[in-house]
């Protein structure tokens, strides 16, 4: 009988997309998605480390899973994602009943981790791998009209307050050819909207091609009607990108543009690469080009603390 896995996801859209990736890896290895943890042979908690509150919630949830593990000792319990990378010692100390811990660059090893645990071992893979982009892995997506597509991983910006470069590693982009083939396949499967994901999504680069070139290429895919992306970094918004967005009907006129602070002094302390004045000028420029643009100025995401059910 096929082994069944249950995935619990905390955090941002990148993490939701990573859960689809993990589900893709496991289904390709013969595992089946379980409806609930009560039906599962393997429980995976995909964690977030962006906020302390999120970490506390995950640790609290792991304490609940201890009770479950006591009642179901054969269930394999794994912790993956950013918090696994960041808090490995804490997890090992507070939740020694966790069978495997895997960071964001180690998901390929999920099937091996589960096999090793079944053989009686624990498993740990927290190596960051600058080359890992999972470009060849087909995610197991939720059904619907909207598909998330990770186009780049990691971040090189090194903001003073942020842990992402240390838990998700340095920036790397997935080849444009691979992404376009994936979008064509999504269109054939009936998806009508793609949401491009990346920690600083518009830093995307593949050789000579930048984020605008990727946007243009995706607008040319028949069947795809709407394109969105998150999260852009303000100084990586070029005139070419604004023109591309303004001129294509397929690219939604909505952008979440992280501001972080309205004070230049604080922005400098945060090691953001723009001043408050430059940010406002950028907004003005975008709105001039396209007056119907809806801008949501965000300082942080509440999504980081939520536990989500995606399957
Ligand atoms: S750009 Fe975003 S992901 Fe990168 S370090 Fe700054 S806050 Fe973190």
Notes on the structure:
There is one protein chain. With 311 residues, the protein is an alpha/beta fold. The protein has two domains: 4-130, Rossmann fold (3-Layer(aba) Sandwich), CATH 3.40.50.12160; 146-300, pyruvate-formate lyase- activating enzyme, CATH 3.80.30. The chain is 36% helix and 20% strand. The strands form five sheets. Strands 1, 2, 3, 4, 5, 6 and 16 form a seven-stranded mixed β-sheet that branches. A three-stranded parallel β-sheet has the order 7-10-13. It has a two-stranded antiparallel ribbon with strand order 8-9. Helix 8 packs parallel to helix 9 (239-247). It is globular. 38% of the residues are buried. Iron/sulfur cluster is lined by residues 155, 157-159, 162, 164-165, 199-200, 233. Iron/sulfur cluster (SF4) binds next to helix 6.
List keywords for this structure.
311 residues, alpha/beta, Rossmann fold, seven-stranded mixed β-sheet, three-stranded parallel β-sheet, binds iron/sulfur cluster
The figure for the number of domains is 2
Morphology: globular
Number of strands: 16
Strand proportion: 15-25%
Q: Mean pLDDT score, rounded?
A: 90
**Helix amount, in percent?**
25-40%
Alpha carbon gyration radius: 20 Å
């Amino acid at each position: 009988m096929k082994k069944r896995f249950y995935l619990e996801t905390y955090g941002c859209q990148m993490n939701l997309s990573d859960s689809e990736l993990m589900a893709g890896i496991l289904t390709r290895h013969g595992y089946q998605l379980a409806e609930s943890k009560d039906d599962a042979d393997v429980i995976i908690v995909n964690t977030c480390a962006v906020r302390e509150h999120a970490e506390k919630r995950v640790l609290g949830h792991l304490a609940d899973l201890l009770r479950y593990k006591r009642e179901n000792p054969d269930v394999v319990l794994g912790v993956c994602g950013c918090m696994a990378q960041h808090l490995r010692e804490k997890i090992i100390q507070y939740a020694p009943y966790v069978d495997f811990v895997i960071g964001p660059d180690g998901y390929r090893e999920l099937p091996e981790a589960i096999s090793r645990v079944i053989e009686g071992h624990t498993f740990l893979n927290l190596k960051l791998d600058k080359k890992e982009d999972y470009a060849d892995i087909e995610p197991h997506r939720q059904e619907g009209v909207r598909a998330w597509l990770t186009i780049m991983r990691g971040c090189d910006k090194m903001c003073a307050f942020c842990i992402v470069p240390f838990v998700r590693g340095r920036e790397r982009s997935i080849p444009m050819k691979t992404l376009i083939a994936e979008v064509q396949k999504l269109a054939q499967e009936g998806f009508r909207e793609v949401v491009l994901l990346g920690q600083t999504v518009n830093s995307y680069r593949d050789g000579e091609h930048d984020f605008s070139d990727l946007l243009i290429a995706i607008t040319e895919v028949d069947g795809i009607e709407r394109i969105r992306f998150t999260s852009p970094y303000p100084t990586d918004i070029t005139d070419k990108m604004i023109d591309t967005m303004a001129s294509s009907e397929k690219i939604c006129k909505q952008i979440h543009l992280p501001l972080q602070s309205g004070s230049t002094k604080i922005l400098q302390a945060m090691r953001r690469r723009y001043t408050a004045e430059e940010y406002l000028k950028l907004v003005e420029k975008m709105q001039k080009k396209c007056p119907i643009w809806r801008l949501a100025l965000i300082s942080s995401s509440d999504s980081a603390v939520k536990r989500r059910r995606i399957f």
